[in-house]
Amino acid sequence: MAKIQVILGSTRQGRSGDKVAAWVMSELAKVPGAEYELLDLREWPLPFFDEPVGPSMAPGKFTSEEAKRWSAKIQEGAGYILVTPEYNHSFPAVLKNALDYLYAEWNNKPVGFVSYGAFAGGARASEHLVQVVNELKMIPVRQRVVIPTIWAAFNEQGELAAGDMHAKNLQTMVQEMMPFVK
Ligand SMILES: Cc1cc2nc3c(=O)[nH]c(=O)nc-3n(C[C@H](O)[C@H](O)[C@H](O)COP(=O)(O)O)c2cc1C
């Protein structure tokens, strides 16, 4: 079965991203048609990109062990869901770094966005991501999950406010990805 990888793009101490990723994974478990794997960038520490040649110029020719491992992991994915907060109207540097490391591995694969933040729900972060994933020759789908006022979005049981609406949007996102999942 094809694998969709969920990449959690925030790594800071005390992040809200934990709760968002946990919610995404629990909802995806109800969506048939693919298997889902969480890739927490905290568990995939990548130094700032330092390869002598860019990945689009020399596909697969990595010098660092971190790059080789990240490449092998991302090759397993047939599609990706990027979970991103909004930092200064964009997405975190750690996520940009993880994307910059690779090229061919991302090419021609669908990608969806789950964003969260303050009042814009991270929408500006995912809009910036669209520009980046286009350059990586990925296929961004239209449907997003946009979670505003993240500090108040989850109750103590980990339930998400307006969770039904967000779950439906997540299902639609996966449906839009499936025709491109190979
Ligand atoms: C450096 C930084 C910049 C931020 N900038 C924005 C912003 O531009 N827009 C917004 O809606 N929220 C912004 N926030 C609030 C974050 O969206 C919110 O703190 C969220 O919880 C961050 O995700 P994380 O907890 O998983 O790191 C910012 C937070 C940080 C740490």
Task: Give an account of the 3D structure.
The structure is a single chain. By secondary structure, this protein is an alpha/beta fold. It has a single domain (3-180), classed as Rossmann fold. Helix content is 32%, strand content 19%. The protein contains five helices and five strands. It has helices at residues 17-28, 65-75, 93-100, 123-135, 163-177, and strands spanning 3-8, 35-40, 79-85, 110-116, 139-147. Strands 2-1-3-4-5 form a five-stranded parallel beta sheet, sandwiched between helices. β3, α3 and β4 form a beta-alpha-beta unit. The longest helix is centred in the C-terminal third of the chain and has 15 residues, at 163-177. The N and C termini lie close together (10 Å). The model has no long low-confidence stretch (mean pLDDT 97). The structure holds flavin mononucleotide. Residues 10, 12, 15-17, 85-89, 117-118, 120, 150 line the site of flavin mononucleotide.
